[in-house]
Amino acid sequence: MKKIKYIFFFFGIISCQMTFAQDQDNVIEERNEEKLEENDEEEEKLFDFNLSLKNMHLWRGLHVTNSPVTTADINYTSKNGFFKAGLWGGRSFTGEYTEYDYYVSFMHKGFTLAIWDINNTSDFPDVGFFNYDRTETSHFIDVSLAYSFKKIPLNLSWATVVQGRDYYYDDNGDSKNAFTNYVEASYIFLDKKDWSLAGFVGGSFSFLNEAHFYGDHPNVSNVGVIYNKEVKILKEYTLPVSATASWNPLQEYGAIQVAVNLF
Q: What would the pLDDT profile of 167-222 be if each residue is shown by its tens digit?
């Protein structure tokens, strides 16, 4: 019964914050996609490659690394925009953080279904790359469903870790999947020609166990704002830059991430 109260409390907070949210990893991408749709003369690209530079790496309220990082994304998108698949990687300047992910996503009428095999090897230096034993692996598989409203800049998402290093031990001492959930509401409340301001609120919980992937109990775990800006370089070239101020009530810490999309 206590878990049910936590869940209702959590959704209540999200409902109140729907006018204050936007996911920090998606704002620049969504704005770029809108511009590509509006520009009929833009050359169609099925394959693409992106490189970003960050002062640190935040993900769903977690400090993945506090060191400066580079991230790269190689991807394929179908002509109709329904299917996308890619490889995503990140590495810190100091070398203590390394990540290599696979992902696929399906987009249709505002809905996006995404499946990520996330492999952060930072704390698992001796584990085999294809080791998926949940008590040993550096992998976890994250499945998310999101919906973006057309008439208002509101996005709602639900993500669940379905396999990998998200587990607990039952009363018999056996390891079990925790199936941790992360839900988020995001909203762009100022969207100008060269800049935007948005906010987001998200939280995490498991139906099966008090402790979960993001912390030791259910709670709001990611609240913040993000400012996007296009910085002009040499008059004809612009760099998308974002600054994210994030607070994590569950872990009781905050941070500011500055990211530059180099190309």
A: 999 999 999 999 999 999 999 999 998 999 999 999 999 999 999 999 999 999 99
Do 143 and 111 form a contact (C-beta atoms < 8 A)? no
DSSP element (H, E) containing 27: helix 27-38
Read off the DSSP letter of residue 190. E
pLDDT of residue 44: 65
**Which residues 6+ apart lie within 8 Å of 107 measured at CB?**
81, 82, 83, 84
- In angstroms, the CA 89 to CA 210 distance is 31
Tokens of 41: 């003369």
pLDDT for position 23 = 40
CA separation for the pair 250, 252 (Å, rounded): 6
DSSP state letter for 124: -
Element (H, E) at 8: helix 2-16
Looking at the structure, give the CATH architecture of the domain made up of residues 2-39+47-261.
Beta Barrel (2.40)
Tokens for 113? 């279904």
**pLDDT tens digit sequence for 53-84:** 999 999 999 999 999 999 999 999 999 999 99
Burial 54-73 (b: 16+ CB within 10 A, else e): bebbbbbbbbbbebebebeb
Model pTM score: 0.83
Q: Read off the tokens for 238.
A: 């612009």
Tokens linked to 56:
């640190």
Domains of the chain, residue spans: 2-39+47-261
Q: What is the spatial distance between Cα 155 and Cα 145, in angstroms, rounded to a whole number?
A: 11
